[in-house]
Every structure is written in structure tokens, then in C-alpha cells.
Amino acid sequence: MAAQNAVHAHTSHNHRECIDDALTRAREICAVRGVQLTPLREKVLQIVWRSHKPVGAYDVLDELTRSHKAARPPTVYRALDFLMSEGLIHKIESLNAYLGCTEAGATHSGQFLICRQCGATEEIVDPKLETALDQAAKRAHFIAERKVVEISGLCARCAA
Amino acid sequence: MAAQNAVHAHTSHNHRECIDDALTRAREICAVRGVQLTPLREKVLQIVWRSHKPVGAYDVLDELTRSHKAARPPTVYRALDFLMSEGLIHKIESLNAYLGCTEAGATHSGQFLICRQCGATEEIVDPKLETALDQAAKRAHFIAERKVVEISGLCARCAA
DNA sequence: AAGAGGCTGTTATCTTGTAACATTGCCGCA
DNA sequence: TGCGGCAATGTTACAAGATAACAGCCTCTT
Predict the structure, then answer these.
(1) Are the Cβ atoms of A142 and B156 closer than 8 angstroms?
(2) A14, A111, B65, B118: most buried by Cβ count inside 10 Å?
(3) What is the pairing mode between strands A111-115 and A143-154?
(4) B156 touches chain A (CB under 8 A)
(5) Other CB atoms within 10 Å distance of the CB of residue B158
(6) A132 and B137 in contact by Cβ < 8 A?
């Protein structure tokens, strides 16, 4: 499920399952935590999950407006902020765009592989890389809190 | 010089030397490459180097306008683009801001430690981290081209 | 003199993100 | 029953970041 998502962002697959899994998982997580995954927030999460490509806030807004005429920028940003604070989505800083989290539940800053050709972006969880980041910070006597790792290039599919 | 800058971003030091070193180095590099470090571009580089904190494009613009009334956003962005393409500055994606490069000359994507308290940002060059990044990409069959690594937290000074 | 290319000027606009205040709806409690 | 508080959303306006598109200028070359 989560682990499966993580390895097929750049491949063809039944994406409906991705979305369903993500939404189900999000509902569970929010229920456990006692926070409200309102219809609006869920809709935004669904929109972000429409693809494995990071989606801009204003693209979310365009999409959201179809079903929700009152939507405005703050509507979207509030929902995105909520989803980020609950670890359900990530912001891809180098693109100013948002991506569904495949490791929802665990608090973590993600590590991403962004294909410049097809746009598909995969979240990876690489313990060695994580360690290397911590060690690098430690050597510099720096207390790491948030770690942004975004590698862009070509996915296997586009390279072939 | 370069290595020295890299370890004192978060400490007090004679910053004039940083700037002078950076400008001198930039002139050398551009001369060797046969590209033009025009007065305008040099001025922008100097402004970016005024501190070890990443500087927003519009902050650069405000500062630039003092000596250069005709300056407009494109003026600044063109200069920043040039300086980035020559590896003389980096963009800090998570802040939408720009920082002088302490390793100018070598082509590289930087790795940064950003103090959320004082704002000082240090560029580090950590071969082990570099390797870990390459390995992580390789394991995912991904061809890495650009690597964004931005760790934010507390510098030793602010933690104390 | 003509033309090409690189740099800068200039105007306008686009994209991304936030401030600030109003409104709604629900829940607990007097 | 009504009131106070809080979380979520509505609404308007704007700030901040970035680029498009075209004009002008200078230099070098032929």
C-alpha cells in the first residue's frame, strides 16, 4: 500500500487505488487524532492525489471551484496547511507545489525524486540518506529540525 | 577562504573580508570563462553577499534602487539568473531567497543549514551526504541532475 | 554601413501566498 | 433556553515573487 505507492509513482498503475488508499488512510489518521477531516479538506486532499505530480495551489483552486463555488485562495491554503500539519501532504519547495504523502502517519520530512520530463514525483524513504543528513548537521553542530531533500532529474521510464 | 567562509556563517567575523573575497573570486572566474561580470551584476552579487542570510529578490531590488534608479524586477532577476548560471550564488528554495556561494568555481548543487532563529545560512560540502544522495537516487533507478538539500533548525550559537 | 548579439530599460502582467475581518455552526454550560 | 467560545469557512483586499514582451543601446564584425 504505502510502500507500493512509493515505488510506482513513475509507472502506470491503477491510480484509483492510490487515491482510495490515501483517503481511507487519511480518515483513519484524523479519526485517531481527533482532528477534523472536513468535506472541504478531504476534497482538497483528493485533488492533490489526482496524480503523482505535485500540484500548484491555484490548480487545486481551479479544480475545487468546480464543486465549490465559494472557494478562494485562503480556502485552499488553509486546507493545504491543515493537510501538511497532519502530514498528509508535502510541499515540494522547488516547484511551489503540493504532493500527497505516501507515508502518512509517520512524522517525517520527505525525500523526493522529481522527474523533469514527466513531472511524476516519488517520495522515497531512505534510512541511509536520513542518517547522512543527520550526520552532516551534527558535524556542523547544527540542530536539524526540518529537512528538505528534492532531487530532480529523469525517472527510469523517461530515461529509457 | 572558501572553506573558511563555510564554517563561520553563524559566527561573528570580519564580514568585509567575505565580501571582498567573494567579489575577487567572482571577477577571476568570470574573466577565465570569458563572461561579463558587468557593474550591475557585480553590484547585485555584492548585495547578496551583504550578509550570510539568504536575501529575497525584492530586498535586492530595494537595495539596488539606491544606486541604480532604473532598477526593476527584471533587472534583478536577470542578474540573479546570470549569477546562478555561473555558480556564484544559490537559490534557497524553501525561502525563495538567494545566497552567495562559498564554493564558487566548482559546479555543484549546494547543501544548506538554515538557522530559523538568526537566519544565518551555511553552505556545507559533505561528500558522504553527496554519496548518500547519489546512492538513494541510484537505488530508485533515477538519474539525478539537480539536488536540493536544505536543512533548517538551530545553529550552535542560537541553540546555546 | 549593416547586421548580429549581448545587455539593459520599460511596461504590464502573471503566479503564489497572506492579512484581516465577517459569518456560520456546533458544543458545553449556566 | 440562551449565551459564550471555538473551530471552520466566507470574503475582500493586497503583498510578495517572478516573467513576458518589446524597445533601445552598444560593441564587434564584416
Answers:
(1) yes
(2) A111
(3) parallel
(4) yes
(5) 16
(6) no
Mean pLDDT of B61-90: 98
Q: Quick check: helix, strand or coil at residue B139? A: helix
- Per CATH, domain B2-159 is 3.20.20.70: no
A69 min Cα distance to partner chain B (Å): 31
Residue A135 touches partner B, C-beta closer than 8 Å: yes
The DSSP result for B4-58, as a single string, is HHHH-TTS---HHHHHHHHHHHHHHHHHHHT----HHHHHHHHHHTTSSS-B-HH
- Rounded Cα distance between A10 and B63, Å, is 44
pTM more than 0.70: yes
Closest chain A residue to B143, measured at CA: A154
Check if A145 contacts B (Cβ < 8 Å).
yes
Each domain of chain B, given as residue ranges in start order, spans 2-159
Tally of residues, chain A: 160
If one compares B49 and A12, the residue with the highest pLDDT of the two is B49
